[in-house]
Specification:
two-stranded antiparallel ribbon; mainly alpha
Length: 338
């Protein structure tokens, strides 16, 4: 006589894939797609763009979603990372740009994080909506400074950037950003980040050092935004200050709010949907820029938290937060199956 499998066995068979499995799958696809030509170069370019936008959305979601603050100047950190990385490979060490590229991207992220530290120290002395005002002013300052420095091309932009951004590089940085932000958010320190989102006063009362929490989260966010900027520069092979204006920051906000606030899976979903949608709307030319703010308005009216706002896929949660498997029934309680 065959017996029905227990509930615990069924749960184990159908549980969500682990984060390690998803990382392994992503790494295999990132190397296999260009190696075997599974898709053409156009769609590879789209996948690379999606990866860069995923990093941007994750970085901004750490501040706007998990911490509950509101930054509108992350395009300034992206510009800093893009220019530093591009100068590293095309101006400072042009002899072997492929060898310098990984270090240039990291240097771009570090440069952006230093700027983020300065902005955070100044901005988090206040509370409320002042962070939005400070970051907007920072974005305008960065754009104006870049337009008036001839060493980086001024308003004409920076030419001659070697195309070094490939699918494996972008996939590696996407997986690293997911791993770092996921571990940060679900760490003991990350609980303080989410406590700040819920109530700053209550977080202070239970012993959370809110100012230090805000500064660290902002610096980590600026670092990954700078990394995305470095990858972006070596994908397009040309950058100028106009690429990093308020429109770019608005694109990041749309990706975050579309996917969902306070959700890693939401950032991935929002960045993917937004990138593909903007590409499909390319025949509309300049009119597609009307669609982007319209989406943001509709989201704020009908879905303020986004598609996956404050919810998360099980594969991005630590094991302690996964639902407990149902207890196995005793053998005597299992009905026989003929």
């Amino acid at each position: 006589m065959m017996r029905v499998p227990s509930a615990a066995i069924l749960w184990r068979r159908h549980r969500t894939p682990t984060l390690a499995g998803l990382i392994l799958l992503g790494a295999m696809l990132s190397f296999g797609i260009p190696r075997f030509g599974l898709i053409n170069e156009y769609w590879q370019f789209i996948l690379i763009t999606i990866g860069i936008n995923v990093i941007l959305a994750l970085a901004l979601n750490l501040v706007n979603g998990f911490m509950g603050e509101f930054s509108v100047g992350h395009a300034g950190f992206m510009a800093a990372g893009a220019y530093i990385a591009a100068m590293g490979t095309s101006r400072w060490f042009p002899a072997d740009p492929a060898l310098v590229f990984p270090f240039a991207v990291i240097l771009g992220g570090l440069g952006a994080s230093v700027l983020g530290l300065v902005i955070a120290i100044l901005a988090f002395k206040t509370s409320g909506d002042y962070l939005a005002i400070v970051t907007l002013a920072f974005l305008m300052i960065v754009k104006s400074v870049l337009e008036n420095i001839d060493a980086v091309g001024g308003p004409r932009g920076l030419l001659g950037i070697v195309p070094l951004t490939t699918l494996p590089w972008v996939c590696g940085w996407v997986l690293l950003s997911i791993w770092v932000i996921r571990n940060l958010v679900y760490s003991r320190f990350g609980r303080g980040i989410m406590a700040v989102r819920e109530d700053v006063v209550a977080a202070n009362l239970v012993g959370v050092h809110t100012r230090e929490v805000k500064i660290l989260a902002f610096v980590v966010s600026a670092f990954f935004t700078g990394v995305a900027g470095g990858l972006f520069a070596h994908l397009l092979q040309f950058i100028n200050p106009r690429m990093f204006d308020i429109i770019k920051s608005t694109e990041m906000l749309v990706m975050v709010y579309l996917g969902g606030m306070g959700s890693i899976a939401g950032s991935i979903l929002g960045a993917s949907v937004f990138t593909v949608m903007m590409e499909l709307l390319r025949p509309l030319a300049a009119w597609r820029m009307v669609v982007m703010p319209l989406i943001l308005v509709l989201l704020m009216l009908f879905r303020p938290r986004g598609i996956m706002g404050l919810t998360e896929l099980a594969c991005f949660k630590p094991r302690e937060e996964l639902p407990t498997p149902p207890a196995a029934l005793p053998p005597a309680a299992l009905p026989p199956v003929p």
